Amino acid sequence: MPSSPRPLEVVAVIPAKDEEARIGITIAALEQIGSVGPVIVVDDGSTDQTAAVAEWTGGVEVVRHNRNRGKAAAMTTGAARAAELAPGVPVLFVDADLESSAGNLGPVVEPVLIGEADMTIAVLPPQRGPGGGFGIVVRTARDGIRRLTGWTPTQPLSGQRCLSREALDAALPLASGWGVEVGLTVDVLRAGGRVLEVPCELHHRVTGRDLRSQAHRARQLADVTRALVDRSGAKEKVFARAGMAMRGARGLAGRGARGAARRVTTAVSSASRRLSREGEDQRP
Ligand SMILES: Nc1nc2c(ncn2[C@@H]2O[C@H](COP(=O)(O)OP(=O)(O)O)[C@@H](O)[C@H]2O)c(=O)[nH]1
Ligand SMILES: [Mg+2]
Which ligand is nearest to the CA of 203? Predict the structure, then answer.
């Protein structure tokens, strides 16, 4: 992948939704890293004071969506603003819930700045406290990426990643919603980019196993599957099923029914199993 003259710092983009309790400390920690330049917070229709807290913390720029459009849309908005603010400069995507551990992201930035990688992905240590899911979303994402690219990521859903501007542009338009990380990995690899996982001492809010968390995972699974399907060439055959699952997941967020969660998960898993078989069938 061609690259422009080497920049000395990156632009950080933080997609945030209802993070007033965490965004301030995340920004402050990030600003301690020498290789992080401008910080852009994209407030994605928060119903709390996320934008106000961000504006009062250091010299960040806050861009607002007046309604909630999802993480990928917020990242797209941030990437566009970064291109205006610092053309050609790499972009570091940072989740808003890392709090003080965001100060450890230096090693994730470095390989992109020195031209050793086109995209780095932070690999997190085991997280503190109870929580965590059953691994279905992670497995689906990991297996899907492997089938589409031949590369097996350790943490396919990690949102902490740094991309050269060329790599980021190669992945635009981004996969939607929670499929954005899977889409980035597949698209950058397919464009010939070098992807590097970097262990990093990061901690974030762990999603539990309550109903709300299960609904979050169902939406994640639907979006991840959609990103894979969209990149598989098997789109027409499995799209109807994935689409159905996605509509189910959206409805679930409102209704919060356990049975519906199970049905969505089953529908998406079977779409993804089908996708896997299609992928195998397509291999030479
Ligand atoms: N833009 C946007 N960001 C979101 C949304 N929901 C969550 N986020 C942000 O995305 C990041 C990851 O979300 P999180 O809930 O921690 O997901 P997890 O880390 O996968 O469990 C955090 O920075 C959130 O503030 C959303 O609807 N829109
Ligand atoms: Mg998180």
Answer: 2
12 CA to centre of ligand 2 in angstroms? 17
Query: Which pair of tokens denotes residue 257?
Result: 């029914």
User: Residue 221 in contact with residue 246, Cβ under 8 Å?
Assistant: no
Structure tokens at 81: 């603003």
Ligand 1 centroid to 201 CA: how many Å?
19
- 3-state DSSP assignment of residue 230: helix
User: 20 CB less than 6 Å from ligand 1?
Assistant: no
Per-residue pLDDT of the chain (284 residues; tens, 9 = 90+): 655 667 889 999 999 999 999 999 999 999 999 999 999 999 999 999 999 999 999 789 999 999 999 999 999 999 999 999 999 999 999 999 999 999 999 999 999 999 999 999 999 998 876 556 668 999 999 999 999 999 999 999 999 999 999 999 999 999 999 999 999 999 999 999 999 999 999 999 877 778 888 899 999 999 999 999 999 985 444 433 444 344 344 444 444 434 433 433 444 444 444 444 444 333 33
Q: Report the C-alpha gap between 168 and 3 in whole angstroms.
A: 12
Within 10 angstroms of residue 263's Cβ, the number of other Cβ atoms is 17
CA distances (Å), 93 to each of 220, 247, 257, in order? 18, 28, 33
Bridge partners (DSSP) listed for residue 44: 65
Task: Return the sign of the alpha-carbon dihedral for residues 32, 87, 169, 268.
Answer: positive
Alpha helices in 16-118 (DSSP H): 23-30, 50-55, 71-85, 106-113
Q: CA-CA distance, 175 to 179, in Å (whole number)?
A: 6
